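3.2 Worked example (two chains)
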Amino acid sequence: MVGPIRYVSDDDDSGRWDGFPFREGDIVISTRSKSGTTWMQMICALLVFRSPSLPAPLPALSPWLDHAIEPVADVVARLEAQQHRRFIKTHTPLDGIPIDDRATYVVVARHPLDMAVSLYHQSDNINRERMAELTGKPVTVRGPRQSLHDWLLAWTQKETTALEQPDSLVGVLHHVADARARTATANVVLVHYADLLADLDGSMRALADRLALPVPEDVWPSLVEAATFGHMRRRSEELTPNPLGVLRDGSKFFREGRSGAGREVLTSQELLAYDRRVASLADPDLVRWLHR
């Protein structure tokens, strides 16, 4: 049997999943960057602990296993010590990590243009010197910063592969298509970012059912409120994934969190070119679902 594909970037490595000791009930949260990762981690934390008050900062409760800023053995040891139902973060597509029958895999998808706008702004907030210090790799040398419009336009048309650049348009579509193809199995759940925005209560209830995490009805309102974007922004110090200082300013991690920002950047003709590009890369049903 062919094993998982190995995805490697400047700061993460899916090979760190090799030999991971899964446990019955594990939840693996798999998303592309800036597609609702921390939001889904928070939702899972609220469902697991049934309280808006968490016993530890979110990055400690839900480590990013692939992130190469600390030894993988240390991350696994912390996960092994956890007594609660575990929920683990990854930006790796499901074809790059072990699929274990004991775990449930939750994949969050977002409109690619909105994801890309958030990625553009997030890039300015990364402390690349600190990242290089932690990973032992050279500091990434960046040229002059393009405008958001020019960068986004180039992003929509870039020729690459999901393996080379998972956060490219090609990579985004691959990540979601791979997950969608697996949803026929009971342990893969595909969630749309727009559904979380439109009906957070209903989306959380549906996820609680899929994860078999019953929550007393009188607790629900406080959990839904704690999962709103505004509430999470106010708790950014506790929730932002910045335990080792890889972000310049953790308070800027939660920027806007809305839908539609990407389409506002491009002209009508550029949006048509984007639509043609997406149509050449993905199944029409997937495109309709992703863009709704």
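3.2.1 Second chain
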Amino acid sequence: MPAPTTSHPIDRPLPQHGGEALLRIDDVVRVFGRGEGEVRALDGVTLGFARGTFTAVMGPSGSGKSTLLQLAAGLDRPTTGTVHLGDRDLGGMSERALATLRRDRVGFVFQSFNLLGALTAAQNVALPSRLAGRRLGRGEVGAALDRVGLGERARHRPAQLSGGQQQRVAIARALVGEPEIMFADEPTGALDRRSGRDVLRLLRETVDAGGRTLVMVTHDASAAAWADRVVFMADGRLAGELAAPTAEQVADHLNGLEG
């Protein structure tokens, strides 16, 4: 594995994090189990994510980062505390309303590409919208694939695509609904270094050119260095933050948490 770079992956002006928070998590606690089996996966976390910024969330296994992502995306509810997306308190919404909010305002990218092998790239991109009862025009699907550099592969099935190309189809699927915020859970975990870099560059562009807010959970210091800031977690609590991170700084901070 190459040594971590000491420079930021791309030269760009850094966004101001003091602006309006699109996503706000306030004093959130998430408890699983009861009695002696109780686990506090999150323990009083307060965190904001400004519009048009890219945040990486990192920490040792069991630190609470995946639970944080689930709560922030409205896929789980806090035991106590609040999660706001814009002016909406996710805790006060019905499951149906949450499903609608996720469909209309949120995009998801995961380590497993979750593509259906029997469908073409274009059909995979369109599928979530079709299941939600919203039929996309051919131009919308084509434009989404063009944005990820796969316009000429629209009729290819997943088995005919590389891992990096499959992940780009998954990103096109997330982008086709024009979400305000995207959540990525280990999006490069199943990719080789070169493909991972291509995917990270694409995710970076969705923030810089598209003005979206991106929250990414990763264990990879090199991946985190593409973000505007890195938030660290340990034992369900916040454990530090780096702005304009380099892979070397991220790795050093992680080593301190795991040491």
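3.3 Remarks
DSSP finds eight helices and ten strands in the chain.
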